[in-house]
Amino acid sequence: MKEVVRSFAVGVFSLAAMPALLMMGCSGSSQPAPAAASQPAAQTQKASAGPVSAKDAFWPMYKEAHAWASDVMVLRLTAKPVAGFQNQGGKAAMWEAVFASGSKAKYRTFTYSIADVPPDIYKGVNGGMEVPWTGVTRDAMPVDVSSFNVDSDAAYLAASADAAEWLKKNPGKEVSAIEMGDTYRFQVPVWYVMWGTKSSGYAAWVDASSGKVLKR
């Protein structure tokens, strides 16, 4: 019976751990860069569409990142909240991706949002400032985009099935983290899905290539 969230010492994709692991390969700030100053400061404008899956957001961000650096690699993809919208079913109102370039020795944080929520969130793709990057580490490996087969909504369904017994005993618990990345422990892109908190919750890892829940 799965009553306690799996150990974060061996499962590195926690809400706190993944950004920390990523920044082990970075020498700059781990905070997302602010949106471009040229964006208009207007009242909140909601988009007509609702939350989107990771792939719907990823490819527009990847296109912009590739224009920035032809050797760009993705290190992390994370679902983010936006005021006025509810993330659900593995879909989110905003996605954040961290891209790095070996030739530039820099990384940038890109976001894709379905709505404007000034002063920090703007609809569409927005890229942050360049930050020094010291290169790939065992705990923050680049995601093989060709192996990114399973979208966030499908990963959520697989994780939900794995967590079914725990969710039944803990009704009303919301998903607190959905994130994709890779480390030497997996060697494939992996979705991390968590309900509740690190101390009182449930976490599942889903292979983003095959869709199978990974057991440890």
Share of β-strand residues: 15-25%
Pattern of helices and strands: HHEEEEEHHEEE
Tally the helices: what do you get?
4
Portion in helices: 10-25%
DSSP, total strands: 8
Characterize this entry briefly.
The chain has 216 residues and is of the alpha+beta class. Helix content is 18%, strand content 24%.
Task: Tell me about this structure.
This protein has four helices and eight strands, in the order ααβββββααβββ. The longest helix is centred in the N-terminal third of the chain and has 15 residues. The protein is globular. The N terminus is likely disordered. Helices cover 18% and strands 24% of the residues. The chain has a domain of 106 residues. With 216 residues, it is of the alpha+beta class. The protein starts with 16 loop residues before the first helix and ends in a 9-residue tail after the last strand.
